[in-house]
Amino acid sequence: EEEEEAAGKKKSTSGGLRAKYQKTMELGQLIQNKLGMIASFGERVRNLFNWSVPLVTKMIMVVLCVATVGLYVLPLRIVLCLAGSRVFVKKGLQHYQPFGMFK
């Protein structure tokens, strides 16, 4: 009986060690995946500001500056009203214009 109890303790100890090892491995994998996600996000942010084509960068900067000044001068509400009016006028005039001028 004593030998069986000793064998049972060895099995439970080795089973406990395996379970601890398995949990440690799962935790390590989880940490590695999370760090990979953080690194990927960092690379994406860095690539937003590290454009490799200077002409495209200049064009985008000009468009953003013009949009900034335009929104500073005109309130957003007016810009949206003008855009909405254009859509409705365009749809309304399609029936009366020959040759599809507003398509």
Helix content: over 70%
**Strand proportion:** under 5%
Order of helices and strands, N to C?
HHH
Unreliable stretches? none
Biggest beta sheet attributes: none
Fill in the keyword field for this structure.
3 helices, elongated, 83% helix, 103 residues, mainly alpha
List the helices and strands and how they pair.
Layout: H1 2-49, H2 54-73, H3 76-93
Compact summary:
Helices cover 83% and strands 0% of the residues. It has three helices and no strands. The relative contact order is 0.04.
Structure notes:
With 103 residues, this protein is mainly α. The protein contains 3 helices and no strands. The longest helix is centred in the N-terminal third of the chain and has 48 residues, at 2-49. The N and C termini lie far apart (93 Å). The mean pLDDT is 79.
